[in-house]
Amino acid sequence: MGKVSLATIALMPLIAAPALAADMAVKAPPPPAVAYYDWTGFYLGANAGYSIGRDPTTVSAISGITVVDNEKFGLSPTGWLAGGQLGYNWQIHNLVLGVEADWQWTNQKDSACVLDCILQFSLNETQKLDSFATARVRAGYAADHWLWYMTGGAAWGRLSDSRFLQQNATFVIPPVSTAGSASPAFSRGGWVIGAGVETALGGNWTAKLEYLYMDLGHTTDTFTVILPGFLGPPFPFTTTTTSEIRDNIIRAGLNYRFGPSNVTASAASGGGYYKAPPQAVAAAYNWTGFYAGASAGYSVGRDPSSEADLALAGLVPPLTSNDSFKLSPQGGLIGGQLGYNWQTGNIVLGAEADWQWAHQSDSACVEGCTLPTGGQSLTVSQSMDWFATARGRVGYAFDAWLWYVTGGAAWAREHSSIAFNDGIDAGSASSNQTRAGWVAGTGIETALVGNWSAKFEYLYMDLGSTAESFTLPLTGGFITLNITGRTEVRDNIFRAGINYKFGGQVAAR
User: What kind of fold does domain 34-276 have according to CATH?
Assistant: First the structure.
């Protein structure tokens, strides 16, 4: 009996262990790890894009000691750009902080002809942005294989201008043609701010689409030409041109990042990151279905414009003015969109319609613009109240992002006017029209949470041309002016939006 008791006692821990283990809570296995792109590290890349300047310009002309012109108009240098960038990102969970520097070659250029711009007298203004560079910080939010970010910092640009002033011999005695020119160059510093989206492609390669607004201050240049007098001695004619330098930049880029390409967020490690193979991702967002959303942004026009005065009697030659310049209506916009996507493999086909309220306006004053000091002025104005588009979309989707191109039809409500005033006589003409044209652009969309997605896109819109004219009998009755203003309607749209898709969220690879 004693021996049995001793044996039983010896075996009790082994007998009790299963029962004790059964009474203890079973620890759940760690949740499966999910792969994310790791943005931390140095990167190097190249980019290309397009830029649209909006440079309010004034020309003051002094004949002897008298101000004879003080015209206000726009220069809008546009052109392609290409360059490179380098930077460093540091990621803390979903937060990405970074620095980036870039240099861009650009062929942005524009010109205007003012101060009557006819054979007897003209001033040709040309402005060009040769290159620019920026040094910026970036701060963004990353998830899956995408990164939305804001950016801003310092900017520098190299500009070259040219100005040519000419007076025809027909209007002076003795008949001698006179011309003068200036070709100043400027290096300007300023600031830049913008936003963008970057997506991981494969391995360490990423692609980005971004918008930047750059302000390089202003330039001022003065030059003097000695003109022959009309039945009198020669006299100095001095022109001073001042231009604001503002630029809207849209560009796409490709980066290569040095370091590991994928990491995994693990619940077991408290949400920290560690290396993981790319195949850890098991599902992709499914873009198929109807969607609706809202968008907001900014738009800037680049509208080649001209005004012409034709004297029907009393003056020879009959053409008294033929100025050419740019109007650049700008403003914020907000609206909504709805559409449908159909995905097959990585290809996404879709259709989208949108309506946008817009608050764009601009004006130019040519033909003297010295009122109320007794001179004359001719003002050309343009504004856009709203626009709408109906477009097709074709894109490539991977993981949680979609890059696409888009194009189709466009409509807009546009207002144009032209007005003349010389302190004695005045006249005007205006029109309100719903215009039709076409639109094309590109964009990127990323899946957020559930059925929500966010997009960023650029659109170029062409709505044809408009013209206003009126006839004005001047005081005395022997001279009648036929005044015509013509404007092309072109718009550059930068906007971000959010969509909700009706239907399933993901599809297994």
Answer: Porin (2.40.160)
